[in-house]
């Protein structure tokens, strides 16, 4: 068993990347580790120009590791800076030659759905995943992803730990209600879709479902930004009832969720999916595609539709336009949120680190 007082380096590459679900995970896990006993043994290694001030760390030291940014930095500058200790990589990648590394790989999407990615990205990340799968201690975010990674990386599922996402980060913010006025939603019914506008988010089925709704006042608010360097182009259509809200702060997201008729989470494939829990944390109903990871996370607290069936989605949307959600479903959502907390996941990762030889 490893020495619990030995230094542990954290891969801070996520601080140089746009915020999406993976980067959210890394940020919140680091914050949670900072509140754990013995947090002073962690050192967050960041590339040049990365800003860690927003993490508001109290115990974890932040150190710049020179050597550029991106994958080159990760494989060289980070590997060198962390060579004398253990390394925790939270964002799905890490230096392949580091001998004492724990990596969180969030899903098997590049293996199961390479068509959702640009070819070069998918080829590189499949190779990187295989190398890390052969050398590192692994964790992931759900039982579904554990089984998927075990299959594609050809290692026993029991060797992959589960340290889930959470949603309690939205409890730290005060909703910024002005955004509802700014988007002209105060007197309109609206639905929210939250996440980067990428192919696996299945934007098309939401647009087609919107077209099936006759109400000229209803709106669909897409919160997030496209990721053209990773994913192929996503066509968002031209329906005037569609609002492209771009990236928004947590405070704005919380306000939009509180007043929405529902969050629509239409993903074709996910390793976990944070937005449904974020919605449930704001007592917002959830309409979700019926895929395994979402079923695992949401259980009976969400309404489901087949991912390719825009008519079924439109029917669910229409029902929530006509009737308020049952109070029991809101209570079920709160119960699901209570199961997924960042401090519990940080504790699970520490347990995995404790089983890693120094």
Layout of strands and helices, then pairs:
Blueprint: E1 8-11, H1 21-34, E2 42-46, E3 61-64, H2 70-81, E4 86-89, E5 101-104, H3 109-112, H4 119-135, E6 137-140, H5 143-153, E7 160-162, H6 178-182, E8 190-194, H7 203-211, E9 219-223, E10 242-246, H8 250-259, E11 262-265, H9 275-281, E12 286-289, H10 292-298, E13 303-305, H11 310-322, H12 327-339, H13 342-354
Parallel strand pairs: 1-2, 1-4, 2-3, 4-5, 5-6, 6-7, 8-9, 8-11, 9-10, 11-12, 12-13
Key structural traits:
Rossmann fold; 6-stranded parallel beta sheet; 13 strands; 13 helices; alpha/beta; 358 residues; 2 domains
Structure description:
The protein is α/β, with parallel strands linked by helices. The chain has two domains: 8-166 and 341-354, Rossmann fold, CATH 3.40.50; 169-339, Rossmann fold. Helices cover 38% and strands 15% of the residues. The chain has a seven-stranded parallel beta sheet, sandwiched between helices. Strands 10-9-8-11-12-13 form a six-stranded parallel beta sheet, with helices on both faces. α1 (21-34) packs across α13. The longest helix is centred in the middle third of the chain and has 17 residues, at 119-135.
């Amino acid at each position: 068993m490893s020495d619990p007082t030995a230094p542990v380096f954290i891969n801070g590459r996520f601080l140089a990347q746009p915020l999406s679900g993976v980067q959210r995970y890394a940020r919140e896990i680091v914050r949670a580790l900072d509140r754990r006993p013995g947090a002073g043994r962690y050192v967050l290694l960041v590339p040049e120009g990365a800003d860690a001030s927003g993490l508001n760390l109290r115990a974890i030291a932040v150190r710049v590791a020179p050597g550029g940014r991106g994958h080159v930095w990760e494989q060289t500058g980070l590997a060198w800076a962390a060579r004398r200790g253990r390394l925790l990589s939270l964002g799905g990648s890490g230096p392949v030659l580091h001998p004492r590394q724990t990596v969180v790989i969030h899903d098997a999407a590049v293996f199961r759905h390479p068509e959702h990615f640009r070819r070069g990205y998918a080829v590189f990340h499949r190779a990187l995943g295989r190398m890390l799968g052969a050398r590192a201690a692994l964790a992931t975010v759900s039982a579904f992803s554990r089984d998927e990674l075990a299959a594609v990386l050809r290692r026993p599922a029991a060797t992959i730990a589960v340290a889930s996402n959470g949603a309690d980060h939205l409890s730290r913010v005060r909703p910024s209600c002005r955004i509802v006025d700014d988007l002209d939603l105060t007197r309109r019914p609206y639905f929210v879709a939250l996440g980067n506008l990428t192919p696996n988010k299945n934007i098309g089925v939401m647009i087609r479902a919107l077209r099936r709704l006759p109400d000229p006042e209803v709106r669909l608010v897409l919160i997030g930004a496209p990721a053209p360097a990773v994913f192929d182009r996503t066509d968002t259509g031209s329906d005037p009832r569609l609002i492209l809200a771009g990236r928004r702060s947590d405070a704005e997201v919380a306000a939009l969720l509180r007043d929405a008729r529902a969050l629509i989470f239409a993903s074709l494939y996910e390793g976990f999916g944070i937005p449904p829990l974020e919605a449930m944390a704001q007592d917002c109903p959830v309409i979700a595609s019926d895929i395994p990871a979402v079923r695992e996370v949401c259980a009976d607290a969400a309404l489901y539709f087949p991912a390719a069936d825009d008519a079924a989605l439109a029917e669910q949307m229409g029902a929530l336009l006509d009737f308020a959600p049952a109070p029991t479903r809101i209570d079920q959502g709160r119960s699901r949120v209570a199961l997924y907390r960042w401090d519990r996941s940080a504790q699970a990762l520490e347990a995995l680190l404790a089983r890693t030889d120094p």
